[in-house]
Amino acid sequence: MSHLHNGLNMVEINTLVLGKTIGGFLSLVYIFYFIQLSSWITRSVGDFMHLTLMPKTPITMFHIMFLSLACYASLKEITAIVRVNEFIAPLIFIMFWVTYLALVSEWSWERFMPSFRLDLFNTMKETTDILAIPFMDTAICLTMIFPFMSTSKMKPVFSGILFTATFISLMIFIMIGVIGITRASHLTYPLFTVFQELRIYAFIEHVEAIVSIAVLYTVFFKLCVVYYNIVLGICTLFNIRNKTMISIPLIWVISGFALSNHTSLIDFREWDKKYMFIYTMLYAVIIPILLLIVTKLKRLKKAG
Fold first, then answer.
1. What is the dihedral angle through the alpha carbons of 58, 59, 60, 62, rounded to the nearest 10 degrees?
2. CB-based burial label for 40 (10 Å; 0-12, 13-18, 19+)
3. Where are the alpha helices (DSSP H) in 53-144?
4. What's the whole-model pTM score?
5. In-domain check, residue 294
6. Cα separation, 47 vs 53, whole angstroms
7. N or C: which end of the chain has fewer CB within 10 A?
8. Which residues form a coiled coil (predicted)?
9. Is residue 134 part of a domain?
10. Mean of the per-residue pLDDT values of the chain
11. Quick check: helix, strand or coil at residue 204?
12. 104, 280 contact by CB (below 8 A)
């Protein structure tokens, strides 16, 4: 789609291909998805901080704090968000992996037992939610950012997604070798627990702060991008120039959604496991294919 409609984001493509009425409706659907996604991210970071770091602090305070920062970042445009990430992300990446690789000394093949009992089809069926978040939702978010990128820079973007998938797989592989499949699958935040129990040279303890920083920054960066997409989508659809009047009220809208979407972390994970992949397919695959078909038909009609 980005090649066929160079320089246009998803909201603009919807309007161009399907007209103001149907295209505008689809654009609203995408904006609503971004609001939902941002509320899920906000609730996730709130739950993480509430359960692991500050259990006595009301979860709403975390929501408002992160959303306020995301609001400020969205007003500074995507360029500022990306430049900050270019500086901070490598530092966090190095800090995280240098510490995480210290777990290799505790790693054992025995924790993978029993081996060779994998039902591949059922495993893929039960883990489709992993494709929805963080991969398919990332692709959806990029549809709003592609206009800011030249065609030559598309390859590094997808290389980065592949790079991320590889390191997530490596991280899980090491985690299973350290704490085992059974324990890892029953922990709410297994990565945090692994770092919490890690001891380096018998005197360096409480390195869970490192994973907390890494998780919070990663989630915050994603929240900033999604928040920016919401503001950009609304301003583009309704031709609004003053982004501040859209960005600030979104803090309260998303915060409200974050509290009301799910009753608890368990409720969200159950919903995520059952419906997230199917729901995300609508925005990541079905609607783009529809737009692609309509675009091709229109071009064939003009050529004929």
1. 110
2. buried
3. 59-75, 77-100, 120-126, 129-130, 137-142
4. 0.89
5. yes
6. 10
7. C
8. none
9. yes
10. 85
11. strand
12. no
